[in-house]
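hey all, quick one before standup. I had two proteins in the batch that finished overnight and I want to keep them in one place so we stop losing track of which output belongs to which input. First protein below, input sequence then structure tokens straight from the run.
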Amino acid sequence: MEAVPLLPLGAQAQEGAIAEADIQKLVHDHPSVLPIEEIDPAFRRPISICRELRTLAGPIDNFLVTPSGLPVLVECKLWRNPEGRREVVGQILDYAKELSRWSQPDMQREVNIRLGKRGNSLLEKVREVDPDVNEIDFNDALTSNLRRGRFLLLIVGDGIREGVEAIAEYLQRHAGLHFSFGLIELPIYVLPDGSRLVAPRILARTTTVVRNVVSLPHGMTLQETQDEDDGEDGSGDPEWDRLTAVRQQFWKEFLAGLKLDDPQQTIPKPAKQGYLSFMFPAPNGSSWLTVYRDMKKNEVGVFLSASRNSAGEYANQRIVEDWPAVHELLNGTAQKTTDRYGRPQIGDHRTFRDLERSDDRAKALAWLAERVNVFVNVLRPRVHSAVVDYRADGNG
């Protein structure tokens, strides 16, 4: 009987070896290769949604979800040393902690961004496999499981050997989540005809790790601003009335063409002022995205705003501290400046020739809509995450 050689793994191995990205693709294309039912039957039949799902803790290698709304997180690893094991276990736990701050709309937004789609692409992917999934039940279950930290966390790697028992000590350091955990060795063999054989093996697993869980409120009260009647009253002054009508028409056109990836972001009304406020999830309306038009300069722009000495200001500071990463996610054109109080401020703006000309106006509206969508996608979840930490530290 002919021996079956092991296919060498690792990006730096000999020609024909596979890398972590290849394992990701294998898991994404064939989720049944994972022996999930042997780890926790509640998570059986997961559906692959996407690879490299963006979170504030980093991209999740593989994200899957069951038709019942249970999330599965997979981290793929080519093991080289014991330190690598500690790092990857800590990493997947960080992902779980971050996702426990999300709700279904947050997940929908990030999946849309990753897949380059709009609507509820997450539900569409699930219904491709199970057409009978009820939208309301699925969304409610997913939000509940995210908030509770009810996940299946899987680390999939090659050649995992000694030291598996030590992983338990890392798991015990993360309170506040209910999760199941599995460590899977996924050796790949080359058969004589050149085809590959995958022989998964469970090396470690937990029953559901139950800890004291503090449930976060599903939403935060947002302070509504900019009612159509807000602002100075210049009625009776023809010039004031003309400028008010010009501003309001501009914002009506802007909002009519605005498409946001984030389904949870509230949309303001067309304002009579030269700006709009998109409120972010911070207590007492203390964080928002200001969107403005300067009529004299023919300039439009956006910038992150916050009340002084507030959770929103704390969030702003946290975001500024992560400026290199934030700057890149904002497509590299945003700037870090200071506001009138000397606080750091993140924003972007562009000047056009004449905003009353139809071609310039159309370009300005399109540019501004793109900027608002990107700023909401990048900054809103960061504000939310920072506010959770702000409250955890005993603040308001």
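OK second protein, same deal, sequence then tokens:
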Amino acid sequence: MIITSLLDTDLYKFTMMQVVLHHFPAAQVEYRYKCRTPNINLARFLDEIRAEIHELCQLRFSESELQYLRGLRFMKSDFVDFLGLFHMPEKCIKVTESAVPGEIDITVRGPWLHTILFEIPVLAIVNEVYFRNVCTEPGWEEGRKRLQKKMRLVVDDPALADFRVAEYGTRRRFSKIWHEEVVVTMKAQMGAHFAGTSNVKLAMKHNVTPLGTMGHEYLQACQALGPRLRDSQVYALEVWAKEYRGDLGIALSDVYGMDAFLRDFDMYFCKLFDGARHDSGDPFVWGERLLAHYAANRADPRTKTLVFSDALTFPRAIELAKRFAGRCKVSFGIGTNLTNDLGHEPLQIVMKMVRCNGQPVAKVSDAPEKTMCDDPAYLAYLRQVFELPPA
């Protein structure tokens, strides 16, 4: 079994799920899987993937896991009580062979509250099934050499005393065994440079900090749940602030692109939120624009945190750290480059929300290839409403 615990997922799934329980318990959603890597034959592993997902749907939270969640300062008791009753509803997920030869289709439909936890473990299952069948002799030693080299770039540079990096690679991992080795090694050898992991199971097991706030699906769903489409980003941030009262204060900035984010992220949000997360587009341009925006809104940039998490490598993270040193706080989340860098080409697979309450939803990021929507007319309308350039 690949997934043996419902905690084997990213923290932001639980922080979003708590918001869903308290504010949108009746929302109905649809997610769809997509493989962006060409010429990958996953259909031959269809039965294996289905069997793993079936086992996933048999899992329940253990009492020790619930107790761990209760100990997180931002988790509320009624939410943890709900998790005590929770399981993945197998009837809500369909895994079939695609019309495109060799590809598979995965669709999740149902209540948002009951389907939100599917994405991360399902992607981890697809990754691990693929790699354990295709790479029968994994490059463990090559992976360890690469990991050591990356860590030394930070540990051996006295100019990086304040450098903090977190592991964000659950959904992209080569395998859960390698994932755990990466976290254990970073904790042992990087000291204070290792900020923690997005994976709640590994955070609990190895006594490291679990990290995460909100994901794209949260702001996407608010396109259908808010009072008006143009105000959906503001609505999403306001509901988040209402739930967490200043905690978990890192806002996601790229659901509609940076221009639209800055228009909505006014002085109130600048002062209320601790910072923002970059996940598409040029990170240097993004950082400079955000710092200028803080200054223009009378918020001291030195008190704010910029989180970088878009396809990061250690050299790029170090470059960003040096660019913004002394001007703000910076933090880095590295995924694929940590958990799937053993000399094999990683899969570019995603599972995105495409509908909420029967209405199309979309992410229109600063990286065009990351846009995912099944309704071209809605996408064009969204661009118009948020004054975005045509595709």
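Flagging for whoever picks this up: The chain has two domains: 11-136+345-385, 140-339. The chain is about 45% helix and 15% strand.
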